[in-house]
Write the structure tokens for this entry.
Amino acid sequence: MMVWSLATMALGSTLVGQAEPIVLDRGLAIPRVTVAGRNAAPTDLIADLLVRNRLGTPRAGEKLASDRGEAEWREVAAGEQGFDQRAFQSGYLLCTVDLPSEGTYLLRASGHGMVYVNGEPRGGDVYGYGYLNLPVALREGRNTFLFSAGRGQLAAKLVPAPAGLWLDVSDPTVPDLLTSEAGSSVWAAVVVQNTGASAVRDAVLECALGGRTLRTRLPAIPPIAARKVPFRVPVPKDAKPGAVQARLTLRWDGRKSEAQSLPLQVVLPKQVHRRAFFSSIDGSLQYYAVTPSQKPGPDNALVLSVHGASVEAISQARAYRPKDWLTLVAATNRRPYGFDWEDWGRMDALEVLGIAKRAYPHDPSRVILTGHSMGGHGTWHIGLTHPDLFAAIGPAAGWISFRTYAGLVDPGKPEDPVASLLQRAGTPSDTLGLVRNALHYGVYILHGDADETVPVTEARRMREVLSAFHPDLQYCEKPGGSHWWGDDSVDWPEMFAFFQNKRIPDPAKVSRVEFVTANPAVSSRSNWVEVLQQERCLEFSSVVFERVGDRIEGTTSNVAALAFDVGRMDERPSSLAIDGQTLRLAAKGARAFLLKTGGVWRVTGQPARWEKGPHRGGPLKLAFQRHMAFVFGTSGTRDENAWSFAKARYDAEQWQYRGNGAVDLIPDTEATAERLKGRNVILYGNERTNVAIRRFVDPKCPIRVDRGALAVGDRAWRGGGYSALFAYPKAGEDEGMAVVVGGTDVVGMRQTDRLPYLAPGIAYPDWTVFGPGYWREGVSAIPATGFFGNDWRLDPSQSAWR
């Protein structure tokens, strides 16, 4: 039996009987060919050539013309730490490897945004973590590696890895083992790489610890791909605090890997520790950290802390001194950089908060939110998006928004209707647009006046804005304080003293509600008012209502449907004055529903579950949840099928890297309604190449993508080179969504490869069409985009056409 194990593959080592690792140390570099940043309509001259299969074989001295001047391919060599990326800033590095025969390898690269391996997109390690090891199948003769520029030094090598499964413990997700759980089991996760040409569906991972061995059947591992997999870990019956080593072994197809060690910690229940959970976003295993109360009880406060960029949740939790009166939980944002606490980072924080509310005794009215740096931004974003969840918030060294600090780029000119709708899709990121939601709680702002990372002007601006209307604001600017002045940067005594007496009011006794939302599918509720639908999708909607005796009075802006929890009020209202109208409310029922039609409000029943609402809506990226599956097409030509799998794998690699995630990659022929019941689906290809599209996209969808033709309602584009992204209700389900990522031919399909819909700070509307030459022309080559109406029909007033 042959034994494969990454344990023998440390950097710089060799495999017995195999060639030494191949270091990529020479190449051609070209700078200034991309315009990206946080931009929904980036341009990239090299991507344009790749899409059209016209890159050819670049040579030193060859030039490309662009709006930024001429860019030239030049020879470069790596230093001891890798390639200096200043030589190809906003550009690419091309390396080639000539092999005497085909073979499978692990590509170990760091510092790059992504890489095309023989033309196929693969994930990148832009933050230089060093644990991204991707299986690649290389051919006899010349192989190309085209790296997009990232950060710092770019280093890359190829390590021979014969076909099989490889166990990689360099990027684990692990909880701590509690002495109070001795004899039980917990879940952990590690990466498994498959260098074979077929998916492996029957692998088992054995975990031995403390004299016990547990066996976990693994999900399918796609071919020439990596996936993080969960497995059970036995907690020793005699567990005592300290370090322990679990032994992991893979078994598949009658083969067995060499055992590897996985370090774990056994801790006491009142020590800071990590807990694991399965996320409803993608079904993957995640963790959060806890600084437990030293005197747990029902009167405790519960604090959610969100960390800064590059910080792990466990390090965040350890920065706080344990306290008698509170339990603190630190979410992960899915990764140390993750999603800047927006999108899936925000969802992760809310998942952890929900778990903590069930797991730790506390007073439900004493829930606090705080965070530092990127987590200071997360405190603003999460707190202002979900205001009635918290009694107080405390942003420390926080930045306001992507626009004020983190390089948000408008996709085009404001007068361009397409660019305007692309920008509107990102409205939920506009912190200042939500700022009046801070009236729900107390606010403590902490910042050092010598902060060299996040300028103190970010805090001063929020103080200025809030001071104009907020009655419970405290501001502390530490003289000489840098970005981090020790643990007090987060565990600031005066801030926690401020938190100590804050309470969320009883909704039944709240007499006045003022609430703003950018999207009811993200945030819809404040106390006894819920915004169910908007008149104009992803423009701010606001409500101001007050209870006056047995009457509710108030106004709305950009609201199409509302609900009032009249049954929760201590005195049931009998009438409603809304936007100048007076309506009678029923004497029975827990909720009162209102619908606005033609500018007139009327009392009605609950909107149909089919329609948009808090349970389901756009824009596009919101569909990437509910344990989504990536379904690739196998019903097209060889090139179409190869693209579909490669694109699904690339998205899965991006998701694993940025979101610590794991997604099922499923061929269209195996993606049945029963198998994927209750799960969102992401479909790659067109109706001809992916038979699952017609199975999962509701037949009422007005968008059709087929080979050689793309139609949106009565508008049609014929020929090759057209691409589409759209999200639409999943057939047969009230909450499910389906996304199509595809094109009218291979060129149109490839055009979607690098669209940044999984990146934080970038959003697309419900649907977007990309025309030929998009990567060269940018937003001007987007012929149409828009939002569906609340009934999921095309809405001319929320669509833009060229």
Observations:
- Confidence is low (pLDDT under 50) at residues 1-18.
- DSSP finds eleven helices and 53 strands in the chain.
- The two ends are 62 Å apart (CA to CA).
